[in-house]
């Protein structure tokens, strides 16, 4: 019997896709919209207001043209925190939904909403986005949008069928250096793009053994899966640099995991012998390295490295025919004709020169001073970030929320679409498959079904 993914590939290969592919017997009716009807005020419902969700809810509450009218969490106290946050800001008090893990479905069905935004644990993201779109609402989700290829396809097909946006909110794409690099790439500073290296290198061992917040769910993934579980912080900006789904696309990838030692050692050191989080075996390789190749010949290395002692990094290395730059541990460049030919040099002057116009706006208008509590004042006990760029993170987050809200208000295409969400998230299952098969190459699905050839680059580019 053909797997669902293989069945789709077969149908596309035989040209039957447009006519016959259906999910739940629903034919594909239309393409995902590039625009929607403009709307002066947006009504938003939020699902999952823990560490990250409460920060996004704070962003939305700080926006003049947004009414956060509903909030859903399995914990009533989290809903109450959001209600109190709204009250403090003099905004509408959102209706609370806290009757269990599927109560977001009731919220999506009952509430009159333009957008449903979720920051739940990973396994709920697809379900919330599907419930939103199937009830006529646009969807936004924290990363990743899905952890299986089948779910990626379901989201693409539901977005196309309902005509609703489904955006995966990758805040790193909006961070200052990443946006300046995007500007450099677009303006040709590096010449033709050849190679990138990025990733999520962040010691989060402590998060996985906590008995609150991410500790309740993140470690389960590390105990059950082996691959790149969190690819999009590194891959999102690289996908923008290389115009993925907009002139180029990921063609195939290979992935390799090291052995897994970090979490077992950490749990043994910090937890009592009979603790369930110590007794279980963590199988996700401490360092996972994937290599992707695009149709246009760009090579990309993406790493996932969260279970060993190490400083935070996303690498963010970009190399082209004119030179190379690297984001971590500090921003350095080597550009032919502009810097020493064989040495890294500090890239501050390039960051200043290529600062993205959106970031100039952030620093010169009230946009840069969101009224919500910063992430250093977490609602969830003890959930303080262990790396520094709180300000950068807050403003990158604010910008991503602001951009999506403004796109919906104006009825224009958001910076991300469902194809980006599916493509970037697909790395999780593809890496797991490759790791399980001695790093065998995995074909990337073309979620755009050929539209990558004619789609224009992300409009955020200037
Ligand atoms: N982009 C970033 O920089 C960044 C940073 C941190 C977390 N995240 C992402 O945000 C998401 C949430 O992470 P977090 O750290 O806030 O986790 P968290 O555990 O602190 O918050 C999750 C919240 O969802 C609630 N919840 C769980 N299941 C639910 C359900 N079925 N319906 C409604 N509510 C439910 C929980 O009670 C909790 O309040 C994850 O996808 C994570 O990867 C992204």
Describe this structure in words.
The chain has 462 residues and is of the alpha/beta class. It folds into two domains: 36-168, Rossmann fold (3-Layer(aba) Sandwich); 173-381, Dihydrodipicolinate Reductase, domain 2. The chain is built from 17 helices and 17 strands. It has a nine-stranded mixed beta sheet, covered by helices on one side. Mean pLDDT is 87; it is low at 1-30 and 368-393. The protein binds nicotinamide-adenine-dinucleotide. Residues 47-53, 72-75, 78, 101, 104, 119-122, 124, 142-143, 171, 213-214, 216, 380 line the site of nicotinamide-adenine-dinucleotide.
Q: How are the SSEs ordered, and which strands pair?
A:
Elements: H1 4-13, H2 17-20, E1 22-23, E2 26-27, E3 42-47, H3 51-61, E4 66-72, H4 76-88, E5 95-97, H5 103-110, E6 115-118, H6 122-134, E7 138-141, H7 149-162, E8 166-168, H8 176-186, E9 193-201, H9 205-209, H10 218-224, H11 232-241, E10 250-257, H12 262-270, H13 276-279, E11 287-294, E12 299-305, E13 317-320, E14 323-326, E15 332-335, E16 345-346, H14 348-353, H15 357-364, H16 390-410, H17 418-436, E17 442-443
Helix pairs in contact: 3-4, 3-16, 6-7, 7-17
Bound molecules: nicotinamide-adenine-dinucleotide (NAD).
Nicotinamide-adenine-dinucleotide binds near residues 48, 74 and 120.
Structural class: alpha/beta
Largest sheet: 9 strands, mixed
Q: Regarding CATH, which class of the largest domain?
A: Alpha Beta
Kindly state the percentage of residues in helix.
25-40%
In CATH terms, the superfamily of the largest domain is Dihydrodipicolinate Reductase, domain 2
Percent of residues in β-strands: 15-25%
Distance linking N and C termini: 48 Å
- Structural domain count: 2
Q: Would you identify the regions where 5 or more consecutive residues have pLDDT less than 50?
A: 1-30, 368-393
CATH architecture of the largest domain: 2-Layer Sandwich
